[in-house]
Amino acid sequence: MRLDLGLLQMESSGRPDGKRPYGFESLLEYYENRRNVYRQEHGTDTDFKLPSEDCAELRNEALQYYYRYLSLLHLEDYAGVERDTARNLHVFDLIHKYADNEEDRLALEKYRPYVLMMNARARANLALQQNRPIESLRIIEETLDRIRDFLRKHDREDYFDQSGEVLFLKQLAQEIRGSIPRDPRDDLRKRMRKAVQEEDYELAARIRDEIRRLEGRTFPLP
Fold first, then answer.
1. Whole-model pTM?
2. Residues near 27 by Cβ (< 8 Å), separated by ≥ 6?
């Protein structure tokens, strides 16, 4: 990845800088393991806390993954983008739940709608590559609901229609709908209803027969 001061070399999987902190794939796995050990020892993780220093390390590591998934997006490696954005959302959840300091708990939350959007963008494109446009639209709608819930939780639901992430996802959904081939039976059914209303039963019968002829064919949408 080219930056203002030079080039940034990243691994395509694992931690972008290739390091394995404390023998784990990343600091996320390391702190999750610490949480799990605490839970086993105490029977609960209620009092497990991440001090500010740990939260800062996790944020810095998440920045590496951010740079990588931006690069992967340009390469149209949507599986990689999905992986890294889902991973960073996991970091958001970990810090938000366990950070000892409220400022740390909220530090990454302002980026959540953006990362949700990027994750949905990747998953929607993967579905399109597999010729599943309806699945793409479902992913987008579910993500829009998640963003709305997030804004509502923070008393900012009024910002929903102005959000850049929301506007992007709505535009993407519109483009997907426009790319879906129409089922020719839909137009025939409209013509048949109109013929019946006009009492042109002979035309309605011919259209009905044409619809029946098409029933044996497979269309992108039923």
1. 0.79
2. 21, 57, 58, 61
